[in-house]
User: Fold these one by one.
Assistant:
Number 1:
Amino acid sequence: MKVTRLYQPRNPLFWIMLVLNLLSAVLAWLTRAYSLDALGSVLVTAFAVGNALLGTYLAWRLMQS
């Protein structure tokens, strides 16, 4: 596997992976920047972790192709 295989701008999975990882970063920033109640914090954190996992899975698929 080569890391250079990640950069595939013509593949839609590449752009979905970028958006998901960017969204994870924004959600992680939201949990640290704003004082949310317990439920809001858990929901935002769960979405951030889910996005990060899905982005990692898409990166792995890109590296396999």
Number 2:
Amino acid sequence: MKKVVIPIIIAAALGIGGGAAAILLNRPVTAENEVGAPEITEGKYYLNGDVNSGAYFELTDSTLKLNFDGDGYAMVYDACINEGWDEWNADHTANMFLLDYCKENPYTVFNLEHLTTIDIERHYANMNDDGTPADDIGSFKYDGKSISCSPLGDFTLVE
């Protein structure tokens, strides 16, 4: 009888714990959670805060666009390789950046407790089974003063 009771007790404890976790993780975001969300500040956000870096995001009240002063493909490709990515993924990512990030993209802001992201639609990143581009979301962590964009790094507002 002891062999049957112990697994039942363990299963009940796991079930209660899992239920509590599901309730906590799926609770709606409240105004209290959004209080710390940064305001969107329009302007130019340069890679590492350096106006001579060759790359910057331009953030307006309605669009986000990545700009390169030189060869953007090479900059992204090299950053991927430096992060240890293979050549295929580096090429894929560099092409995706040029096609999806280097145009004026309408964006939405997503706030969840201590995380704010600026989200844009991407079209190049994935392919459907029939070979057509699949829509996807590109998310950039945002703290009010910088935009994080892997694998390049942080882009800081320069006024």
